[in-house]
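Posting for a labmate who doesn't have an account.
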Amino acid sequence: MLLGFVYTPALARVPRTTSTDPTATTSSTTVLRGRASWYGSYFQGKRTSSGERYNRHAYTCAHKTLPFGTRLRVTNVKNGKSVIVRVSDRGPFRHQRILDLSEAAAHPLGIVDCGAATVVAEVVADNTPLGPATPPANLATLYDSDPNPDAAYTTYKVTTKAASTEAALVAAAPVTTAEVIDVAESVDCPAGFLIQAGSFVDAANAQAVQARIKAHLPEVTVTIAQDLVDGRQRSRVLVGNFGERPEAEAVRQQLLLWGIGGLVREVALR
């Protein structure tokens, strides 16, 4: 997967240090990684699975199984923006997405323009304030802890150390509207997914794989991208441009049957 992280101090990796805080505790955080979409205004006022009516101006979301009322800090891994939401509905039930966000929640993340985005969502305390929030300081760690990064989505546990409950809430404290950067100019909207079917130092090997794939799948676009890695030219074989990850995964499985390995990667418009 191409992460495309925007470099911010919050995402910077820092050396490990030994805590001297006597109140430090170790806790386990439930983390979800996958695609999140959002509700359109068509659903405004309609009854949700929890019984309450959908309010596009409230910071809510839909999830298939989490208990109603569960609060999540949802972070767009492309731009590092975060928001705290409350589970009030069931879904989404298509495209292997993990969350449907309210319009209010989707805006700070830059998802309204894109339609969907890859997110990391952490279960947070029930009294964490709803709304735009500071991103987790360990976002890169949360993402790297994913035990199955090639899957469309995963749910896993991450062990973290917090000085205290109060400090944990400060880390997820909301920011003011003025502090929320306008992501309309910087949001990285995904155009779809492709399969990287190998990376070769010898361009002839890449061309051979390209020819094999074209012979099996003449209707699918197969290109070769040239990159400079560690001072050496490499040729990557790229297959297709699929609208959803499951489409790309289906083709990847076909390639495996023909002895051609590959990884599904997300591509972006800009």
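Reply:
Got it, the structure tokens are right above this. Residues 197 and 262 are 4 Å apart (CA to CA).
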